[in-house]
Design goal:
Elements lengths: L1 H19 L3 H9 L10 H6 L27 H12 L5 E3 L6 E3 L13
Antiparallel strand pairs: 1-2
Length: 117
């Protein structure tokens, strides 16, 4: 459960540095970029200490590798993440998914790798 705690601490550091004008680099970062922070996607699962939302694993609720498109986006979690990425053209994302440290790109699966034209 390091991800949500880490992001909350990051938000506090960012806001405090901005408020006190104590870090010029962070001040510039906040002034020149849109920053979206989603500390928890599956809040109910986090609260209940379960991975699923209802009986569905939100990590498997995306259209990637799904044979039937009606069998995806059934959870609030998947729809929230999907809509956030559909609304914004992110240049980079940082994730602490399950404690893993990674930089996420617009498609994080090799099956969606396409040749650029």
């Amino acid at each position: 459960r390091i991800g949500p705690s880490t992001l909350i601490i990051f938000m506090k550091i960012l806001l405090k540095a901005y408020e006190l004008k104590s870090n010029a680099w962070l001040q510039h970062l906040v002034d020149t970029r849109s920053i979206y922070i989603m500390p928890m996607t599956n809040a109910l699962g986090y609260y209940r200490n379960v991975r699923t939302e209802g009986l569905i694993d939100p990590n498997r609720d995306f259209p990637i590798d799904q044979p039937d498109s009606n069998e995806c986006m059934r959870t609030i979690t998947a729809r929230s993440v999907n809509e956030l990425w559909r609304e914004h053209l992110f240049q980079v994302a940082i994730t602490f998914h399950g404690g893993m440290r990674a930089i996420a790109y617009e498609w994080g699966t090799m099956t969606e790798k396409k040749q650029r034209v």
